[in-house]
């Protein structure tokens, strides 16, 4: 998987492209964005910023003028903005970017409407219920839109729902894992399953082949299992055995998938960072309480060594990916 930049560098180093033609070759290769590319980028950037600004403007306008507005005016304003966003999506369906922006605005306004309903009628619902209902109501739009941003937002709402639910009720699996760890286990399993389905789906649907979205989902899988193993290292009792078993399997899966099946340097770097953090915590757990001041020196040298080894290995992998 050789990039255009790498191919151009090789041709220049071999002398295939004369030095006087290098500037022209770079221009024709498309490495540098043209004026039209910059205009398209700015146009879409301003479109997205305007979408977010309008959606949050409705929220802040109602919050600022809360005492001067009746309940019907509040609901009418949010619902009118919501209907307008859906109408724009319907009318601009042929213009994909405009439709995606409009549906994203509608999704945000749906959350504003649910929050407004709970505030006006004082339903007494827990925060996790807001995010759960929001995720449930936006699911049809997510399925229709086929847009990575909405899928990531939907998954983030599910994660928030789980974390807030376990924070409120302690979790149904508290007998097995404990209330603090159970939420992390559920989030880890959810995001790991989502990552696996995302990778499989991206081979069929091109709109799922978005690197930043895959990496965010992978982050949602990696952070909980890393925290679980860190808790296991600090606690050190038998109830933490599942974390000791799951973490090496997760790390091996990351290595196997993103080293051979679908090479991704960012994913491998995330795995290296997780392994370094866990290793340093394990060393600190057993060194600082015994070696005192000397333990800090050992940890410092270990951090340098592990970081240097990770960088060296990642650079070698990157070179292999470019050939």
TrEMBL record:
The chain crosses the membrane at residues 45-66, 72-92, 101-121, 127-144, 151-169, 181-200, 212-233, 239-258, 265-284, 296-314. InterPro entries: DUF2157. Pfam families: DUF2157. It comes from the Bacteria. Residues 13-151 form the DUF2157 domain. The keyword Transmembrane applies. The keyword Iron does not apply. Keywords: Membrane, Transmembrane, Transmembrane helix. This is Predicted membrane protein.
């Amino acid at each position: 998987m050789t990039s255009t930049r790498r191919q151009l560098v090789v041709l220049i180093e071999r002398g295939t492209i004369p030095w006087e033609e290098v500037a022209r070759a770079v221009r024709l290769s498309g490495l540098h964005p043209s004026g039209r590319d910059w205009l398209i980028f700015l146009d879409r950037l301003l479109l997205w910023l305007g979408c977010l600004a309008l959606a949050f403007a409705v929220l802040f306008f109602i919050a600022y003028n809360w005492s001067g507005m009746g309940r019907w005016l509040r609901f009418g304003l949010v619902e009118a903005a919501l209907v307008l966003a859906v109408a724009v999506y319907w009318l601009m369906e042929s213009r994909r970017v405009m439709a995606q922006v409009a549906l994203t605005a509608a999704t945000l306004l749906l959350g504003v409407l649910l929050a407004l309903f709970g505030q006006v009628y004082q339903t007494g619902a827990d925060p996790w219920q807001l995010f759960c209902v929001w995720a449930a109501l936006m699911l049809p739009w997510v399925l229709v839109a086929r847009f990575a941003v909405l899928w990531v937002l939907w998954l983030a709402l599910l994660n928030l729902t789980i974390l807030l639910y376990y924070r409120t009720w302690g979790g149904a699996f508290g007998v097995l894992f404990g209330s603090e760890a159970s939420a992390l286990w559920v989030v880890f399993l959810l995001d790991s399953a989502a990552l696996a389905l995302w990778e499989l789906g991206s081979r069929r649907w091109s709109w799922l082949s978005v690197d930043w979205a895959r990496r965010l989902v992978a982050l949602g899988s990696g952070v909980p299992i890393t925290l679980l193993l860190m808790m296991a290292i600090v606690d050190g009792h038998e109830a933490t055995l599942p974390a000791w078993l799951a973490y090496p399997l997760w790390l091996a899966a990351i290595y196997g998938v993103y080293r051979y099946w679908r090479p991704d340097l960012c994913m491998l770097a995330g795995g290296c960072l997780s392994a370094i953090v866990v290793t340093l915590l394990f060393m600190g757990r057993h060194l600082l309480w015994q070696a005192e001041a000397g333990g800090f020196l050992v940890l410092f040298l270990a951090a340098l060594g592990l970081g240097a080894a990770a960088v060296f290995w990642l650079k070698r992998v990157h070179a292999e990916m470019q050939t």
